[in-house]
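Q: I'm building a small set of examples for a reading group on sequence design. Run inverse folding on the following structure and report the sequence directly after it, with nothing in between.
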């Protein structure tokens, strides 16, 4: 069996109409599609084609940054479609991978795309440690082709959909990605670094239920060993730079592999969140971020 056939068979559509299911286990019917599209600035065709998928991914990423402010402040919210719409669309915030891709999946399904949700094992260049499935990602069928469409990985995530054809590359700005099939069950998203291909994460086509995502989110948002609890994090990938904010430290990675690091004051962190990361913070939220950061010592000069 060919690799392409394996993936396509694993994601056979259950619907290809422009209307959301009457009752979806993922709550797709609770999405206000018009409000979502207006928030990201999309006014193009609503047919579920490759061009539509690409534009939607690009605009979603431009509108919403990866961020875990609520998790860092020990105030994680629910991950229902309605609550995510309120947080992203109405309040102008972003979210973690699970929040981002659940909202994006609901919008795609409402437009008639066939979407499958997956939980992936983050690698970030480390192939030796078998980590638990903490990252949510999507595969989407468009024009009889299958794509990885991920708006939730932050700095290293793809800016356009990536075809699930081993070795086929997608380049946006200075960055290049591909998806390879590692074995019968494992697909790997890879990003090209100056020293070669970098494993971002690995995923498979086993069935993922809402309860699986709930458990992964609960660990991510509450467990003391989670990399996001007890820290304020924001990430953003753009055409020619990748930004990672963690507490008071802002790192900027360039296509040549160099990285700049800047230590910030609490006021500067709030300004970066509102500016570079395009987040709307209320006065209460900004004050909570400053208070949290005031308890920490800067990690550098």
């Amino acid at each position: 069996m060919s690799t392409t056939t394996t993936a396509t068979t694993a994601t056979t559509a259950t619907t290809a109409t422009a209307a959301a299911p009457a009752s979806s286990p993922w709550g797709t019917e609770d999405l206000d599609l018009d409000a979502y599209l207006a928030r990201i600035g999309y006014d193009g065709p609503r047919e579920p084609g490759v061009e539509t998928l690409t534009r939607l991914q690009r605009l979603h990423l431009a509108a919403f940054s990866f961020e875990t402010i609520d998790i860092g402040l020990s105030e994680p919210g629910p991950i229902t479609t309605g609550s995510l719409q309120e947080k992203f669309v109405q309040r102008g915030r972003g979210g973690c991978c699970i929040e981002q891709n659940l909202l994006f999946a609901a919008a795609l399904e409402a437009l008639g795309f066939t979407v499958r949700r997956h939980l992936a094992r983050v690698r970030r260049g480390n192939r030796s440690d078998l980590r638990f499935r903490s990252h949510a990602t999507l595969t989407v069928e468009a024009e009889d082709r299958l794509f990885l469409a991920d708006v939730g990985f932050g700095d290293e995530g793809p800016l356009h959909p990536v075809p699930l054809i081993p070795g086929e590359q997608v380049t946006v700005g200075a960055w290049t990605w591909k998806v390879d099939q590692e074995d019968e069950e494992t697909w790997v998203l890879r990003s090209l670094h100056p020293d070669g291909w970098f494993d971002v994460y690995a995923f498979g086509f086993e069935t993922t239920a809402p309860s699986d995502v709930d458990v992964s989110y609960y660990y991510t948002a509450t467990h003391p060993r989670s990399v996001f609890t007890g820290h304020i994090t924001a990430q953003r990938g753009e055409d020619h730079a990748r930004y990672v904010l963690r507490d008071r430290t802002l790192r900027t990675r360039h296509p040549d592999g160099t990285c700049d690091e800047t230590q910030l004051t609490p006021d500067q962190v709030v300004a970066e969140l509102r500016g570079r990361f395009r987040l709307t913070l209320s006065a209460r939220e900004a004050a909570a971020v400053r208070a949290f950061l005031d308890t920490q010592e800067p990690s550098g000069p």
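The longest strand covers residues 133-142.
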